[in-house]
Write the structure tokens for this entry.
Amino acid sequence: MSGISGGSAQAAADDMIFTDATALSRAIAARQISCVEVMRTYLDRIRRFNPVHNAIISMRDEDVLLAEAADADADLAAGRHRGWMHGFPLAVKDLAATAGIPTTFGSPLFADNVPDQDCLMVSRMRAAGAIIIGKTNTPEFGLGSHTYNPLHGITRNAWNPALSAGGSSGGTAVSLALGMQPVADGSDMMGSLRNPGAFNNVLGLRPSFGRVPNAPKPESFVHQLSTDGPMATSVRDLAHLLDIQSGYDPSAPLSLADPEAPFAAGLEGDVTGLRIGWIGDWNGYYTCEAGILDLCTAAVEQFAALGAVVEPLVPDFAPEQLWQAWIVLRNWAVTGTYAPYHADPATRDLLKPELVWEIEQGLKLSAQDVHRASVLRSDWYRCIDDLFSRYDAIAMPTAQVFPFDAEISWPDRIGARAMDTYHRWMEVVIAGTLSGCPAINLPAGFDATGRPTGFQLIGRPRGEQQLLRMAARYEEATDWLSMRPQGAV
């Protein structure tokens, strides 16, 4: 395949540092490699790849980072191990608050915004030993699944810089695929952990709502679309990071209780007899670029080879009702947060057109409109809950298109079908989002030109453990996650 390289002698040495965070964590804890060495190596990777791909922004001073790495080494020498991420360089998505480091949301309105405290998720990763090196790029305010903004520019696909990285966790996905950090955080409102995962051949897990709380949040009780979560290049790395990010906190009133056991400790077990419903394009409702369904269908069938039962599924629910619920709830959530910037003529012209559209649609909504959308969402939850009485997981494509030209704003058509909104082309992700269930992107392979894609595996409510176990068996049975962009190893 064009642009794809497999293993080599050099890759074996690189894997521990660049693609296997669990092995790296062990090596650091055993003092087989110093945190300073790790920091120097990752900074070198960033200098090598970031000028082309623009995944990491707001980089901190290298001398300061090396000094913090030396402090981490001193802690180990004194018998103080901070946690699984001890000494890990970490670039945080530019939607999450980071103390002393710019959090710009990709907007000129916040170009000088430097929070005085970390958000809860970042504080947990920092407490586990991460050294924050900067931020990862995102679309303006995280809107849209193509990572570009007027402040930091375009983030370019790890496999082909002429193509989109997806989004909104595009910078995260690219930095992982190119070995610029070991693991990383992202967030997902529509499909922002999953879509860039598919576009860059890495893993992205949207957890159950409340699994990874983020605080402080002014809308803690009402807006339940977006959630933070982990991205990684192996399932065990993904599980370790989820363990760090998840857990109850009183500052997040809807956060879930701590899991009974670490997710990373429960990855063993086969998939024999498990049942997977393959929705595919939902009986033709989702228009997909040629080649997407073929790759995803073949990928899901890997579970059948492992002993699971895979069968076609058409839910007893009208998929257009999901879109109706989504568009209202999305307009409402976005308007509630950003309407003041639209109301002020001094700031309105600095908003991207897609945000202006969201707000103007949201301002037309009534309380009854929002209530009806919530009822539709609840109907969908009841439908999917009933499906889980027969299935252990539900599978769908992650993306309806392959990575597209990075110079366009968004795909305005798929084949002959015109897209009527800036995000209709990624409609396939909202079934997972609106369910509140955990959903993971798994790689499905590449087309003839080397463009990656992936499929979603949606698990039972709060069923991350079984979902990760299934993903681990898929990882073992396929080679996709061992593939690296040409020149990355």
Observations:
- The chain has one domain: 4-485.
- The first strand starts at residue 4 and ends at 5.
- The first helix runs from residue 9 to 18.
- The CA atoms of residues 210 and 254 lie 6 Å apart.
